[in-house]
Specification:
The structure is a homodimer of 197-residue chains.
Chain A lengths: L2 H8 L14 E5 L4 E3 L7 E7 L2 E6 L5 E7 L3 E3 L2 H6 L6 E4 L3 E7 H8 L3 H27 L2 H11 L3 H4 L2 H8 L3 H21 L1
Antiparallel strand pairs in A: 1-8, 2-7, 3-6, 3-8, 4-5, 4-7
Helix pairs in contact in A: 5-8, 7-8
Amino acid sequence: MNIEEYIRKNIDYSFQENELPFKIRQGKVKKGEVICDYNQIESKVYFLQKGIVQVNIENANKDIRIVDFFFENSFFCSYASLLTSAPSDVQIVATTDCELEEISAHELFQAYKHSLIVNQLGRYETEKLYLKRVKREKEFLTQTAEERYINLISANSEITNHLSIDAIAKYLGIHPESLSRIRRKSIQRIKKTNKLT
Amino acid sequence: MNIEEYIRKNIDYSFQENELPFKIRQGKVKKGEVICDYNQIESKVYFLQKGIVQVNIENANKDIRIVDFFFENSFFCSYASLLTSAPSDVQIVATTDCELEEISAHELFQAYKHSLIVNQLGRYETEKLYLKRVKREKEFLTQTAEERYINLISANSEITNHLSIDAIAKYLGIHPESLSRIRRKSIQRIKKTNKLT
């Protein structure tokens, strides 16, 4: 999917081609490449056509936590940095090889001054990011690591093919060994359920 | 300030009166009144003209935490519930007597279909909510309760006149006695600084 198809699907089905008031550039990044680094001021918005990216954060002890993943057909960037022009607190890294479309932040902000469709898109995407954050906070308050693991893999069934145990553990906020235990338990539980039905 | 003045100040200074494509109703709520309750589906958006409201959340042990405050001249509602039509996880309560303007969610969503200014406003407010959440998460990760207390009172100097020690402690996620200690320490520090300069 590209940005125009995404708009037709999610915002306005009657949206015509070449109506966007900014340029869209094609990009490719290799697995492991840094797309926006710590302390960089974000100047682009990306639409992920293929691949997975992850958002890292470092705590005071220099331990890395993964706070978010983005999958195919979604917009991403270091959004707080984009909105405030402050240095990024997070690092965005390609988890797999990725194909992207890129929009310049400057052109986006210009378009916000007059374009209905671009404001609808910006509002919709910000609502999605807000809800994702609310959901994650709630999960951390109310669910066990096992429940959060099952949520993650059921929402994105391919994820275990692309992410290392280590990456998933960093996202769930647990030790890789605890995750191995959780995975074994989940598999046993699924096998048991299959036998019963 | 009313909604129209807020739009002229923050979104478009050339915005004219009576241009908004929805009705605005005036409302008043008394201190302690529940504006949106747990499990209610949010159907309104409010603009706070006078007063303070707080957003409560209950954890599994039925302990109440205050996760947010809203002050004069800001929009608020149970936003995740408004966006998803799911029962509200939070409860919104008037911390003081309040004067409000109210918009119906249904009329707002209709306006999103065609109005540039309403989409600009919705995007701007969602960005603000998103950034507020990012800031609060970062503060919890990187600051002590004392630093968070000083941030809170320096951003909203009147807050201590309106909020009980208990409410501030519930917001900072600490015991009221710890807050009293922090307040004594902060006052001593301020007195010392004044003597030195």
